[in-house]
Structure formats: structure tokens, C-alpha cells
Amino acid sequence: MGIEIKIEHLTKSFGRQMIWDDVSLTLPAGEISVMLGPSGTGKSVLLKTLIGLLKPDRGSVIIEGTDIAGCSRAELFEIRQLFGVLFQDGAMFGSMSLYDNVAFPLREHTNKGETEIRGIVMEKMDLVGLKGAEMKLPGEISGGMRKRAGLARALVLDPEILLIDEPDSGLDPVRTSFINQLFVDLNAQIDATFLIVTHDIHTARTIPDNIGLLYHRHLAMFGPREMLLSSQEPVVRQFLNAQRVGPIGMSEEKDADELAAEEGHELPPLPPIPLQLEPSNGIPRRSQRAPGEWCRANGVVPPAGSFTDSISPSAIGV
Ligand SMILES: Nc1ncnc2c1ncn2[C@@H]1O[C@H](COP(=O)(O)OP(=O)(O)OP(=O)(O)O)[C@@H](O)[C@H]1O
Ligand SMILES: [Mg+2]
């Protein structure tokens, strides 16, 4: 059914480098959330903190009543079995075939025999479009294939929580569409709680139920997609619409001169909010809200043309 993750006042630094401070948010059970943020804002560090690979300086990550940040190793080992994780670099064992990489969590965490393991591995390899590549080594395949193999491995334990770091970097647009559809279908099937880190604005606008944005060492905003996609908050607006005008510059923040030069610049209107991608069988996901529901409930007028079918990616500048 998916499990809620409650993140409270999380703070992380490496030495004197503060990564983010006082991050609080709840990933609702069974929903898909996307985390955005300029490169280096600590998205991958956040994912690693959520599974206890990195310890925060302060704050807690509560999963089923256990605080990941302060629990024992034994408790952490238990809790980790709820997770499927796709690391940004795929994190494959270089000397093992894709088959053995994908089978690894099953051999490590279950008592299943090799026949049963084979069935599960082949099913997941098929799901991510890697049938036939089982015996290849990670070094012999493309970056996109490694990503998909990592995803197959993240799925073998039927996770309640899926953390996915940039599934679409290094994937061609067609594969990205397939993988996005796969996430939506998977979520409909297994109701797991998803957190996807992406730089792909089209993915961020069409897949999730919730969107978050890390910026300048804090969580700028986290909430239902319609809240962020209709937000006038300068950083959110700039990032979700991939615009140059706004507080974010090439080296994270613009200086006062750059910002002054932009003053008086008319911002383009917000692009329409697209419909959410639906499961391929046409049956809405459990967590899916009706288009415009959040806007209506909160008295927000969505951008003109929102929630119509006729939105092409070019209309949102991607
Ligand atoms: N183990 C570590 N030790 C020291 N510093 C680290 C460590 N891991 C990450 N960092 C630093 O933390 C910051 C955030 O890194 P992170 O990988 O989370 O960024 P990101 O938001 O995922 O960026 P990208 O979009 O490029 O993947 C970077 O400055 C990085 O150098
Ligand atoms: Mg990263």
C-alpha cells in the first residue's frame, strides 16, 4: 500500500559545507513525488539520507514509527528492505553480469531458490526492456541500459518505497517516455511511495502528485503539483518553467547587478498545467486527484489553457 515518509527538520553538512538546513516534508503513502533542484543542491544526498546511508546532523526521517536517523543497525537493515533504490550512477557491480546484479538483493535478503529468483529477475529485466542482455557486464552496455538495469534491481524485492535518482539522465526521449509510463503503471500496480529526482521538466510537470524544489540550502517548496505549477514564487516559477529570468543564475545565484538588469522585465505568462500521465490501462491511480481539484479547493485560478489534452511539449518550452 505504500508507506509514508515523514522528514522533520533535516539538516546535513559535510565539514563546513552546509548542504541543506531544516528540511521538513511528508512523502504521502502511495503517491509519486518529484524532487527538483539545481545541480549540487543535495538531491542525491537527500535520497542517501532517507535510506540511512548518510547521517543527518539534525532532524529525523520517520518510517513506520522508526527514525532512520537514530535507529540501530539491525533496525536499519529491516527498514531498508522496504526500499528499492536506483542510484544516480546505477551503482552496478562491474564484475557481475546484469543478471547477477539484478538477482543480488534476492540472494542477499531472501531465502528464495535459484529457480524462483530466475523467474523474478527475468520478469523485471523484461519490464525495463533488457531481455536478452542478462549476461552482459555493466561496462559493456550503454549508460541508459545501465540505468534500466539499476531500475530492474530496485524492483526485485517488491519495494514499498522507491527512491529513483535521475532515471532519465542519459536516456533518449523515447526511452524517457517509456520509463515515465512505467513509473505511473508501477505505482498503479503496487501503490509504492515514489520519490523521483529529475532534471527533466516535462517529467516533473506530468508524472507526480507532488513536487518539491531544493534551492539555496533549503527546501523552497513542496506540495501538490498544481500548487507548484501555478506558483508565482520566483524560484519555483523560474525552475518549473525552465526560464532564464529569475533568481537562479548559471552559478546557482545571480548577483545584485544581474537581478537589477532584469527588473521591469515582463515575465511570460505561466504555461498551462498539463494533464497528469495516466496508467496505460486507463484506470486512474489510487492517489490521482481530478484535474483542477487542488486549484478549485484553494481558490487558485490555473494558467489559461490548463488541463486540456492539446498540450505539446513545445508549449512548455521543452
Ligand atoms: N560523501 C560526500 N562527502 C562530501 N561532500 C559530499 C558528499 N556527497 C555529496 N557531497 C557534496 O554535497 C553537495 C550536494 O551533492 P549532491 O550529489 O546531493 O547534489 P545533487 O543535487 O544530486 O546534484 P546533481 O543534480 O548534479 O546530481 C555537493 O556539493 C557535493 O560535492
Ligand atoms: Mg544527484
Give the SSE layout.
Layout: E1 5-14, E2 17-27, E3 32-36, H1 43-50, E4 58-63, E5 66-67, H2 73-80, E6 83-86, H3 98-109, H4 114-127, H5 143-155, E7 161-165, H6 173-190, E8 193-197, H7 201-206, E9 210-215, E10 218-224, H8 225-229, H9 234-240, E11 248-249, E12 252-253, H10 256-262, H11 293-297
Parallel strand pairs: 3-8, 3-9, 6-7, 7-8
Antiparallel strand pairs: 1-2, 1-4, 4-5, 9-10, 11-12
Helix pairs in contact: 3-4, 3-5, 4-5
Magnesium ion is lined by residues 43-44, 88, 165.
Molecular structure report:
The protein is α/β, with parallel strands linked by helices and 318 residues long. The protein has a domain at 5-82 and 159-262: 3-Layer(aba) Sandwich (Rossmann fold). The chain is 32% helix and 20% strand. The protein has a 6-stranded mixed β-sheet with strand order 6-7-8-3-9-10, sandwiched between helices. β7, α6 (173-190) and β8 form a beta-alpha-beta unit. α3 (98-109) packs parallel to α5 (143-155) and α4 (114-127) crosses α5 (143-155). The model has no long low-confidence stretch (mean pLDDT 88). Bound molecules: adenosine-5'-triphosphate and magnesium ion. Magnesium ion is lined by residues 43-44, 88, 165.
